[in-house]
User: Fold this.
Amino acid sequence: EAGVAQSPRYKIIEKRQSVAFWCNPISGHATLYWYQQILGQGPKLLIQFQNNGVVDDSQLPKDRFSAERLKGVDSTLKIQPAKLEDSAVYLCASRKSGATYNEQFFGPGTRLTVL
Amino acid sequence: AQSVTQLDSQVPVFEEAPVELRCNYSSSVSVYLFWYVQYPNQGLQLLLKYLSGSTLVKGINGFEAEFNKSQTSFHLRKPSVHISDTAEYFCAVRLIQGAQKLVFGQGTRLTINP
Assistant:
C-alpha cells in the first residue's frame, strides 16, 4: 500500500512570494491533516479535513494560509504572501474514519525556507 | 486544552546503554498517548501507543513505555540502544472523545555515541 505522498520535498522562496504544497493521502483515508513543524518544535495542526469539509482550522493563519481538498482526495496548502517565520516543514497526514482510533500516517514533509 | 511537555530537549547516550525519554502531559479529560520517531528528512513514524488496558506498552524497535495516570507521565524506554536509534522522538496526546488532532511535545533529540 502506498504511503502519504507530498511534493515538493524542498522549496526555497523569497519573503512576500507565494508557495503551494500538494498532498496525496493513502487511498480510502477520509481524514486529512496539515501540520506545521518549526525547527526545534513539535508539529502543530494547521487544518483537518473530513472528506472535502473542514473540521478544524482554528490554528490556520487565515490572512495568508489557505487549504483545500477538492473531491475529498488530494489537498493543497497555499501561503500567500510568505513571511520569514513560515520557514518550517509542512507535514501531511491521513487516517481512516469510522473507528474510535485509527492510526495517522504521515508523509515525508515539505521543507520550506523563506529568505 | 491538552499539552505535552518533554523534559529533555537532547539526550546523549552511549551505544548499548539504556535510555529513558521523559514525557508529561496535561488534560482535563481522558486521552490516548503516543510516541513517534522522526529520522532525518523523513516524516513521523508511530513507535507505540497507549489506548487502554495494560499500562506497559511495547512498540517497534525494542521500545516500551509506561502510562502513569497519577503522575500524568508516559516515559519511553529502551534497555539497550543502537546507533540506528539516533533520531528525534515526539510524545503526543489525542482526546478519546471529540477532536482527533494530535498535540505534540517539542521533541527529544536522541544521540547515540559509539
Summary: Chain A touches chain B at residues 4, 31, 33, 40-45, 48, 56, 91, 93, 95, 100-101, 103-104, 106-109, 111 (CB under 8 Å).
